[in-house]
């Protein structure tokens, strides 16, 4: 029996050894993906395109590991999206000329000597194509590469930025594609340490690009036409002793025509910063015009900008500060806290009135000791409905209403639907 066991043990150890030698010889497989294509603005609308390159190990449990050795990345693309003189100056490394910029602007690879290098643009031959290129970095040597993760989406090898410095991209399709084998010259290659050997493991079939190839700058044509830097405070969330907002809450901002019937033109959402009380809003569906700015927050009173509206121009950031003076709001409809003006707290029902209906909800929730995140009756945003919220709402329960040019009397006071102002 003992002999048999020993014999079985030897067999088992041999089998393990053979398996481990074989496993060490198995190449890792991977996905190489270019994605998250996004347009942005540096000097002109839509003059810059960003995208990420991710590498993910895909045969965990088959290959023992994927130790990164390097990647050499090439894409063909349509140079006609760019407006400068082609080819750009320099052929091997031209990340930043007066007309073009193709740069690495981010990476999750912590060892910078492993990030691909020398981004450049030029025209390749055999076959001819206009290309973007990232060169492989120095191979680190076995044991010095990092483990490529198998969890989605893998590691961000680089975030790239293609900037057309002369202005908005030309309208054309980008036609970006991996330049792959069997092309010999300037083809994408992927290397790993297999066992201890630096091994090329390139499999073009797993190189993909997640991009809707509409003529560019398709998702940027309307983005951003009008931008608004808004300063706004919610009375409930604002602690004037510490000059801070207790929470960064989402507010929704609307543009409405400044003339009757004050048609709704556009909307945008954003979070008010708890320290500088500001947020940038981008309106994609507006043209030049005079608009009222209307701000809504889920338990504050809807607040309109001052009488007459604001003049908005495409491409120019409009600044508006509701906190500086009560006169910044239509009908001076702001409440002073410390030295700053805030939107009234307490329109829990969001009907445009702070009144008994809201008070009842607060009263009821306080009796139930309600707690939680984003409760409409939690006016100060501390997670509890209690006496503090009553104090904040104090004095607001008697007829604070939205003031706007809509449904109002001459002072902008909002009527109920029956035009009756409750006592
Ligand atoms: Ca209400
Ligand atoms: Ca509270």
Description of the structure:
The protein is mainly beta. The protein has 2 domains: 27-219, Immunoglobulin-like (Sandwich); 226-401, Immunoglobulin-like (Sandwich), CATH 2.60.40.4130. The protein has 3 helices and 25 strands. The chain has helices at residues 2-24, 356-367, 387-393, and strands at residues 30-40, 48-57, 67-76, 100-106, 117-124, 129-135, 155-164, 177-178, 189-194, 197-200, 207-209, 226-231, 238-239, 244-245, 250-257, 264-271, 278-283, 289-296, 303-304, 310-312, 317-321, 335-337, 340-342, 353-354, 400-401. Strands 3, 5, 6, 8, 9 and 10 form a 6-stranded antiparallel sheet that branches. The chain has a 5-stranded mixed sheet with strand order 4-7-2-1-11, with no helix packed on it. Strand 15 (250-257) and strand 16 (264-271) form a beta hairpin. Helix 2 (356-367) packs antiparallel against helix 3. The longest helix has 23 residues, at 2-24. It is elongated, with a radius of gyration of 30 Å. The chain starts with a helix and ends in a 22-residue tail after the last strand. Residues 1-5, 14-22 and 418-423 have low confidence and may be disordered. Bound molecules: calcium ion (2 copies). Residues 347-349, 351, 353-355, 357-358 line the site of one calcium ion.
List of distinct ligands in this structure:
calcium ion
Number of distinct beta strands: 25
Please provide the ordered H/E string of secondary-structure elements: HEEEEEEEEEEEEEEEEEEEEEEEEHHE
Instruction: List the quaternary state of the chains.
Output: single chain
Structural Rg: 30 Å
Most strands sheet: 6 strands, antiparallel
Helix tally? Answer: 3
Helix content: under 10%
| Tally of domains | 2
Report mean pLDDT, rounded to a whole number.
88
Apparent shape: elongated
Helix/strand/pairing category: mainly beta
Q: What is the CATH C-level name of the largest domain? A: Mainly Beta
CATH topology name of the largest domain: Immunoglobulin-like
What percent strand?
25-35%
């Amino acid at each position: 029996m003992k002999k048999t066991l020993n014999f079985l043990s030897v067999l088992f150890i041999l089998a393990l050894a053979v398996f481990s030698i074989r496993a060490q010889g198995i190449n890792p497989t991977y996905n190489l993906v270019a994605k998250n294509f996004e347009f942005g603005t540096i000097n002109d609308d839509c003059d810059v395109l960003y995208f990420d390159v991710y590498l993910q190990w895909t045969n965990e449990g088959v290959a023992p590991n994927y130790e990164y050795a390097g990647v050499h990345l090439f894409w063909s693309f349509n140079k006609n999206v760019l407006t400068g003189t082609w080819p750009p100056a320099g052929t091997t490394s031209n990340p930043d000329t007066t007309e073009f910029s193709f740069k690495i602007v981010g990476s999750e690879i912590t060892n910078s000597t492993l990030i691909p290098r020398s981004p450049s643009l030029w025209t390749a031959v055999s076959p001819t194509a206009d290309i973007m290129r990232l060169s492989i970095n120095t191979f680190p040597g076995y044991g010095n590469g990092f483990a490529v993760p198998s969890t989605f989406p893998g590691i961000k090898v680089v975030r790239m930025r293609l900037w057309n410095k002369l202005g908005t991209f030309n309208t054309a399709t980008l036609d970006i594609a991996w330049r792959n084998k069997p092309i010999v010259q300037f083809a994408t290659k992927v290397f790993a340490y297999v066992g201890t050997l630096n091994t090329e493991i390139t499999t073009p079939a797993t190189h993909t690009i997640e991009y809707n190839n509409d003529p560019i700058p398709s998702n940027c044509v309307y983005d951003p036409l009008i931008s608004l830097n808004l300063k706004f405070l919610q009375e409930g969330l604002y602690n004037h002793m510490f000059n801070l907002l207790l929470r960064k809450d989402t507010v929704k901002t609307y543009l409405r025509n400044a003339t009757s019937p004050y048609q709704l033109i556009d909307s945008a959402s954003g979070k008010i910063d708890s320290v500088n009380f500001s947020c940038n809003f981008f309106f994609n569906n507006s043209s030049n015009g005079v608009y009222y700015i209307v701000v809504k927050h889920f338990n504050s009173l809807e607040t309109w900008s001052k009488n007459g509206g604001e003049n908005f121009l495409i491409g120019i950031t409009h600044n508006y500060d509701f906190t500086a003076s009560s006169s910044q709001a239509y009908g001076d409809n702001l409440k002073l806290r410390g030295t700053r003006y805030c939107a009234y707290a307490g329109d829990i029902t969001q009907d445009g009135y702070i009144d008994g209906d809201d008070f009842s909800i607060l009263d009821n929730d306080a009796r139930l000791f309600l707690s939680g995140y984003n409760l409409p009756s939690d006016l100060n945003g501390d997670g509890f409905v209690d006496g503090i919220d009553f104090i904040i709402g104090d004095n607001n329960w008697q007829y604070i209403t939205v003031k706007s040019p809509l449904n109002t009397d001459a002072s902008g006071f909002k009527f109920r639907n029956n035009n009756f102002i409750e006592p």
